[in-house]
Amino acid sequence: MTTTSSSGHLELRGIGKRYGKVSAVDDVSLRMEPGEFLTLLGASGSGKTTTLKIIAGFEEPDSGEVRLGDRAITRLPAHRRNIGVVFQNYALFPHLTAAQNIAFPLRVRGIGKAERDERVRDALATVRLEGMGDRYPRQLSGGQQQRVALARAIVFQPQVLLMDEPMGALDKKLREALQLEIMRIHRELGITICYVTHDQEEALVMSDRIAIYDHGRIRQVGTAEELYERPGSVFVAEFMGESNVFHGTFDGTGSVGRLVVPGRPPITVPAGGSHRPGNGASAAVVVRPERIRVQRKRTGEGSGPEPGHNVLAGVVQDVIYLGSDRRYLVELPGGGTHQARVGAAEADPGIGRGDHVELAWDRSDAILLEAPAAEREAAS
Ligand code: ADP
Ligand code: MG
């Protein structure tokens, strides 16, 4: 028996899955283009593994549909889906050699010995384990075992490869090496990969697009740059990199508005983005640390903010030297610590703890978003 191989995109439509009271996956829709590397990124328990199991066919969703190309595969048994899977804990058969492990999916598919041997040799070469086929899993390092698992997942030439935290058990160096290997294999085979991790940096390095998971839901899908530059929520902004978040009420007309923060000067914001609160509604503003300049507090004439800029006065709590840049932690009057990251070339090395400074940023670098409390209410 051979598996049908209709090429095409992988699509989830309104997938839901509950375990008792827990909504593990909640109305997830997602479309992956052929050859795309998409990562599901989220905290532990956010529903990533359940989503992969539903795509693989190890779990049936309560609602929704899985489609591959123009076919619904929701009720197709796992071994007929033409989807390869790699889990965190290698899951190799201990009593079989590497080559026998890799040959296993070919046997299940009824492929003859001559072709099996050839495909196993090719797969071993793809994962750079030539000559190791006769070893048993216990005779291989963790990284090598995971390569065998990867070879086993691609040997039957699946259209889609699913990987669930495949480096979770490996140390940092091995992880980085295997990351590059997976990216090379993705390029060479042109295979669609759906990858799961809770490691933001891994997601940034490897993915074409990232889907941010939160409590069984996808909060946002996009390229790393889109998620970083144009987060759609405070949650995503805080998940992708570091953020300064200001909370207040919105007040604005036209394309410019202000966030009125009790006890502080208001923050001017561009109001033409995706979220436009009503006047007087609570809202949040996110500013990335590297968008903020740190300058000594100016006094007297002409010390007002430059046009189009926000300036907040504060006191330096700490300066952290990071080689390529410096991170300043600055306490603002009325409480609240904010941070700025300044490149080595622009930083004033004379600024230190206790100094009175100003945090300044261009108005266009502020991202106006829904207040997190309102977000939570809308979701529930
Ligand atoms: P992640 O992979 O993002 O860590 P999971 O998909 O494993 O998340 O789990 C999502 C939620 O579903 C968690 O609350 C988890 O405890 C629950 N869950 C997952 N599998 C089962 C199961 N077989 N039985 C009961 N609850 C489960
Ligand atoms: Mg998981």
Q: Which strand order do you get reading across the main beta sheet?
A: 6-7-8-3-9-10
What structural category characterises the helix and strand content? alpha+beta
Question: What share of residues is helical?
Answer: 10-25%
Instruction: Specify the CATH homologous superfamily of the largest domain.
Output: P-loop containing nucleotide triphosphate hydrolases
* Poorly predicted tracts of residues: 1-6
Q: What is the third-level CATH name, the topology of the largest domain?
A: Rossmann fold
Head-to-tail CA distance between termini: 47 Å
Heteromolecules bound: adenosine-5'-diphosphate, magnesium ion
Output mean pLDDT: 91
How many structural domains in the coordinates? Answer: 2
**What's the β-strand tally?**
20
Most strands sheet: 6 strands, mixed
Please tally the helical runs, counting DSSP H or I stretches of 4 or more residues. Answer: 9
The global form is elongated
Which class of the largest domain in CATH terms? Alpha Beta
The H-and-E topology, N to C, reads as: EEEHEEEHHHEHEHEEHHEEEEEEEEEEH
CA radius of gyration is: 26 Å
Q: Could you tell me the strand content as a percent range?
A: 25-35%
Function: Part of the ABC transporter complex PotABCD involved in spermidine/putrescine import. Responsible for energy coupling to the transport system.
Protein name: Spermidine/putrescine import ATP-binding protein PotA
Family: Belongs to the ABC transporter superfamily. Spermidine/putrescine importer (TC 3.A.1.11.1) family.
Subunit structure: The complex is composed of two ATP-binding proteins (PotA), two transmembrane proteins (PotB and PotC) and a solute-binding protein (PotD).
